[in-house]
Amino acid sequence: MYMSLGAYVIYLALLIIIPIWAQSKVKKTYKKYSKVANSSYMTGAQVARKILDDNGLYTVRIEETKGMLSDHYDPRKKVVRLSSDNYHGHSMAASAVAAHEVGHAMQDAEAYAFLRFRHALVPAANIGSNMSIFLIIGGFLFSMMNLVLIGIVFMSVAVLFQLVTLPVEFNASNRAMAQLVSSGVIRNNEERETKKVLNAAALTYVAAALVAVAELIRFILMFTMADE
């Protein structure tokens, strides 16, 4: 039931170091490009509105929301919510984030398969995230391996949700880049910098998926070794 020292170090690195590094990368990149104005000098809200209208999504609303990098798309209310800095900002970071969230609105309008699959997983993934660790720990404590197995199944659904999130986010970023260029919000010489913002944001999802997979593998190994 015990990991080797090397395996445990790798596990800790995935669990702690990589997420911290990813968050640091996002904040550093965002801070840098939030000080660089886009060539069109459009605010994030204007960028979002233009891309939405260019794609016929006239009924999707744009709202300002509190918090730093709290930007998101609400598929239930059909609203793109942008944090204050991005809503009002004329920066390359603001335009990149706004376009990314509109990318999710475009996915929703087109019934993008991975997005629909992720939405379908939400109820089970929430249960898996909240309950699996208690079932697993309780199962080990009371030597109830069936309970551990149930916990691992629940955790697997939560991990699947994290993995499905990756293509959803990467696709939204690809849509964002294409729309920013085609709409004239950014010029060719700004594409590289815009990609840096989008790629940095994607790192957080990759880090979360790596941690989830590592934790699932650890519990699977503990279960199989305890069952021998």
The span between the termini is 10 Å
Tell me, briefly, the overall form.
elongated
**What's the Cα radius of gyration?**
20 Å
DSSP strand count? 3
Keywords: Membrane, Transmembrane, Transmembrane helix
Protein name: Zinc metallopeptidase
Pfam family, one: Zn_peptidase_2
Transmembrane segments: 6-22, 120-142, 148-168, 197-221
Description:
Keywords: Membrane, Transmembrane, Transmembrane helix. The chain is mainly α and 228 residues long. The protein contains 7 helices and 3 strands; from the N terminus they run H-H-E-E-E-H-H-H-H-H. Strand 2 and strand 3 form a beta hairpin. The longest helix is centred in the last third of the chain and has 38 residues, at 145-182. The chain is elongated.
